[in-house]
């Protein structure tokens, strides 16, 4: 397990700050109110995460490597105290609360993909228990990984629905934990965009694996089913066509670039981590599409090899990551294979050099 000098768990949310910022300025209080409260809560949790990192997280029992997940779901009962009341433990039958059941299933789907595709035992590789809290706060428009557990809001019902609905959202957030325990990418600028992209990549693979989909059958959307019916959009992000996930009066237009020609330079959102992640996202889609079949078997394996190989630096740029994917493709599949050609061509198409 590579830690690059120690864990630096970050506070990562599925709904980007730029979306909530725009909503917070809306003239309709039914839309602006929840967005403002979510931004305030996120700011608190982000600060709390930093303090916990400095002071030290609570001591937990040492994990034991196992082929079975160890899930616990808590109900925050619309409060902000975590984790809340324990409502479902590993192996127990589904209850009446669909949100609890979806969270439990999503944690399991994430565990299964990492175990069966990559022989990884939970997000830390050593059987770490998977904990999640549902029904967090009131009309909370986000889901997040706080370095220790998953947390899901119910959404405001106007623009966002229950955040346990898309399994790729669950997989995305838990993959921030995988990154935390491996490459530990700094959450700023291009390395932060890589951090976000890796979570999108494996979140999508988790959905595809759970549905038994090939690359051609997958929708390559992140957060499909999360947006309320009134929203003009299909998801939070599209890996196949970044910048096309939504175009809505309240949310605005999806601002993600698909290539380096559209790279966004900004000091907001930790240097545009949720925006520029569209570029490596698109590169992965192009590789998976070119190779066909199940995306986790070749494209996903190459990305996983880079994430866990020990050579990816914390402050890696897109070009650093791209170069390592070329090397990983050669190592795993050989110099003359279609895998290497697909990787090189994909990065070329999005404008990222590989040498």
Describe the protein's topology.
Elements: E1 12-13, H1 17-24, H2 29-55, E2 71-75, E3 85-89, H3 98-118, E4 130-134, E5 143-145, E6 150-152, H4 167-181, H5 189-211, E7 221-222, E8 237-238, E9 247-248, E10 252-253, H6 269-276, H7 278-291, H8 299-308, H9 318-333, H10 338-349
Parallel strand pairs: 2-4, 4-6
Antiparallel strand pairs: 1-5, 2-3, 5-6, 7-8, 9-10
Helix pairs in contact: 1-2, 3-4, 3-5, 4-5, 5-6, 5-7, 7-10, 8-9, 9-10
Could you walk me through the main structural features you see in this protein, from its secondary elements to its overall organization?
The chain is of the alpha+beta class and 355 residues long. It has ten helices and ten strands. The chain has helices spanning 17-24, 29-55, 98-118, 167-181, 189-211, 269-276, 278-291, 299-308, 318-333, 338-349; strands spanning 12-13, 71-75, 85-89, 130-134, 143-145, 150-152, 221-222, 237-238, 247-248, 252-253. Strands 1-5-6-4-2-3 form a six-stranded mixed sheet, covered by helices on one side. A two-stranded antiparallel ribbon has the order 7-8. Strands 9-10 form a two-stranded antiparallel sheet. β9 (247-248) and β10 form a beta hairpin. The protein is globular, with a radius of gyration of 19 Å. The relative contact order is 0.12.
